[in-house]
């Protein structure tokens, strides 16, 4: 009888071990399947993103080709500025033809700015400075804010469409921390977006890419961006009036400008602080 019990225990132990091995193997297969699915999703997202970028680049090429015919030495200067020298050269050419070909220059400026913002390509700061040289201040400020709002919103929609696998894979920890902050400011999200656009606490590309993943509404995102980029744009546009005195983009920002930006950032977040204190008193 005792012998049979021992044999039964050994058999049960063997069965349990086999089940554990099978369970481990099953979990491993599931993990491999999830990794394979995520990899396939990331590859598909990358393919879609490349296709959209190709289409956008084709539109930019058409804008470039439909620009008025210029001499070869001036046509060489029609390019996305990478430094202040490029911005000065571009400003020289555009200011020469701005009055004669007003619509073409405006459309080219608008399309280029939105394109850079949509795909987070560096260079928009030089276009902001350049707008102060080409256009009256109110028009320049509205144009920069509109281009920034639209470009950031297009970047938002791209991320919503194809960016989730990238965020989950490479930015999950940072996105989770920002998601917690967004939830704290959910009732006054526009003020919070404005505050982030004025201050350098989070890069603009990070805000654009992660916002749809953590459920920031597109309307709030656009309005917050449109209003939030106004103070930094004010500084850049104002510097554009003296474009030829600048040697680097950093010279566009003075200590007085930083002080003004700091004050505006505080003002943007003050309503939030007062609202929280009022809620605590009412509670």
TrEMBL record:
<comment type="similarity">
    <text>Belongs to the TMEM41 family.</text>
</comment>
<feature type="domain" description="VTT">
    <location>
        <begin position="121"/>
        <end position="240"/>
    </location>
</feature>
<feature type="transmembrane region" description="Helical">
    <location>
        <begin position="139"/>
        <end position="162"/>
    </location>
</feature>
<feature type="transmembrane region" description="Helical">
    <location>
        <begin position="214"/>
        <end position="235"/>
    </location>
</feature>
<dbReference type="InterPro" id="IPR045014">
    <property type="entry name" value="TM41A/B"/>
</dbReference>
<keyword id="KW-0472">Membrane</keyword>
<feature type="compositionally biased region" description="Basic and acidic residues">
    <location>
        <begin position="19"/>
        <end position="29"/>
    </location>
</feature>
<keyword id="KW-0812">Transmembrane</keyword>
<feature type="transmembrane region" description="Helical">
    <location>
        <begin position="106"/>
        <end position="127"/>
    </location>
</feature>
<dbReference type="GO" id="GO:0008045">
    <property type="term" value="P:motor neuron axon guidance"/>
</dbReference>
<keyword id="KW-1133">Transmembrane helix</keyword>
<dbReference type="InterPro" id="IPR032816">
    <property type="entry name" value="VTT_dom"/>
</dbReference>
<dbReference type="GO" id="GO:0000045">
    <property type="term" value="P:autophagosome assembly"/>
</dbReference>
<feature type="region of interest" description="Disordered">
    <location>
        <begin position="1"/>
        <end position="29"/>
    </location>
</feature>
<comment type="function">
    <text>Phospholipid scramblase involved in lipid homeostasis and membrane dynamics processes. Has phospholipid scramblase activity toward cholesterol and phosphatidylserine, as well as phosphatidylethanolamine and phosphatidylcholine. Required for autophagosome formation: participates in early stages of autophagosome biogenesis at the endoplasmic reticulum (ER) membrane by reequilibrating the leaflets of the ER as lipids are extracted by ATG2 (ATG2A or ATG2B) to mediate autophagosome assembly.</text>
</comment>
<protein>
    <recommendedName>
        <fullName>Transmembrane protein 41B</fullName>
    </recommendedName>
</protein>
<feature type="transmembrane region" description="Helical">
    <location>
        <begin position="255"/>
        <end position="274"/>
    </location>
</feature>
<dbReference type="Pfam" id="PF09335">
    <property type="entry name" value="VTT_dom"/>
</dbReference>
<feature type="transmembrane region" description="Helical">
    <location>
        <begin position="189"/>
        <end position="207"/>
    </location>
</feature>
<dbReference type="GO" id="GO:0005789">
    <property type="term" value="C:endoplasmic reticulum membrane"/>
</dbReference>
<feature type="transmembrane region" description="Helical">
    <location>
        <begin position="46"/>
        <end position="64"/>
    </location>
</feature>
């Amino acid at each position: 009888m005792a012998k049979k019990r021992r044999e039964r225990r050994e058999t049960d132990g063997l069965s349990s071990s086999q089940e554990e091995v099978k369970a481990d193997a099953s979990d491993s297969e599931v993990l491999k399947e999830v990794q394979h699915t995520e990899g396939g999703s990331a590859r598909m997202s990358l393919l879609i993103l490349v296709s959209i970028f190709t289409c956008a680049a084709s539109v930019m090429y058409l804008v470039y080709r439909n620009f008025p015919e210029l001499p070869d030495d001036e046509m060489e200067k029609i390019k996305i500025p990478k430094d202040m020298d490029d911005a000065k050269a571009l400003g020289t050419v555009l200011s020469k033809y701005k009055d004669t070909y007003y619509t073409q220059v405006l459309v080219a400026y608008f399309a280029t700015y939105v394109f850079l913002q949509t795909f987070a390509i560096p260079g928009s700061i030089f276009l902001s400075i350049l707008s102060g040289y080409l256009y009256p201040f109110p028009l320049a400020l509205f144009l920069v804010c509109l281009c920034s709002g639209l470009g950031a919103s297009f970047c938002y929609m791209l991320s919503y469409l194809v960016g989730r696998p990238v965020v989950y894979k490479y930015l999950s920890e940072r996105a989770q921390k920002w998601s917690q902050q967004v939830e704290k400011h959910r009732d006054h999200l526009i003020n919070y977006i404005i505050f982030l656009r004025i201050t350098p606490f989070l890069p603009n590309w990070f805000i654009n890419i992660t916002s749809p993943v953590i459920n920031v509404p597109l309307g709030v995102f656009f309005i917050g961006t449109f209003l939030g980029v106004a103070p930094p744009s004010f500084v850049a546009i104002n510097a554009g009036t003296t474009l030829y005195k600048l040697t680097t983009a950093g010279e566009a920002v003075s200590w007085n400008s930083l002080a003004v930006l700091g004050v505006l950032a505080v003002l943007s977040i003050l309503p939030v602080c007062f609202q929280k204190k009022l809620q605590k008193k009412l509670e």
